[in-house]
Amino acid sequence: RDVLALMSNNSTARIGRLLAPFSIRFIIVPLVDGIESTTVNTLASPRGLIDSLTAQLDLRRVLTPPNYIAFENTAWIPTRATLGPAAAQASNEAGSSALASTDISGSTPILIGMRVRGPATGPVPAGVVYSAVSFHQRWTLAIGGAVIRPRTAFGDTLAFHVPVAGTATLSYDPALGRHLAVALQ
Question: Cys bridge to 141: 43, 73, 131, 160, which one at CB 3.0-4.6 A?
Fold first, then answer.
């Protein structure tokens, strides 16, 4: 909501960087809904939306069919990644000003194909391992027999400081009460 408010007020030209920690790679503006609109009679997009998205420095309009307009976020961070140096530093800070003023490109995807709550095992390099999920203490990253505790990244998401490269397992340990609640349902 805060990011969209900044865009609607023309307060920033770096919406892509602000959306990057949430792993948002594409923004789609529908023009045809398949029910009430057609390619001849398209939906009206919110006034100024296309112009505002086009003006963003880190969004690139991509070639699309006539039923929608798509923008690619060139600053996106993969869902699970090893952060590049600038992104790793910015991950320690919260707020839109830290993200908008830093080039956060250079993140490398890891643990590709992992289910939402894991577990997943694979090689990770030394550095900051990032996951685009809300921070919670029940997430752990185990590498070389050591368990690494999470920290908050970008004010809301999850990161781990990995001192040495190796094979790591990222997992979430739900509370016992959750299992009981699911069983009762």
Answer: 160
Q: 3-class SS at 28?
A: strand
Residue 145: which H helix or E strand, with range? none
108-109 and 80-82: which strand pairing? Answer: antiparallel
Contact yes or no for 24/72 (Cβ under 8 A): no
Handedness of CA 62, 78, 134, 120 (dihedral sign): positive
Provide CB contacts within 8 A for 179, sequence distance 6+: none
Measured CA to CA, the distance from residue 86 to residue 21 in angstroms comes to: 13
Q: In this structure, is the dihedral angle defined by the CA atoms of residues 89, 82, 162 and 131, taken in order, positive or negative?
A: positive
Tens of pLDDT, residue by residue over 68-94, are 899 999 988 999 999 999 888 888 886
Output the 3-class SS for 76-102. Answer: CCCCEEECCHHHHHHCCCCCHHHHHCC
For residues 18 and 100, give the distance between their C-alpha atoms in angstroms, rounded to a whole number.
6
| CB-based burial label for 56 (10 Å; 0-12, 13-18, 19+) | buried
- The segments of the chain whose pLDDT lies below 50 read none
Rounded Cα distance between 6 and 96, Å, is 9
Q: What is the token pair recorded at 68? A: 């929608």
Report which residue type is found at 45: S
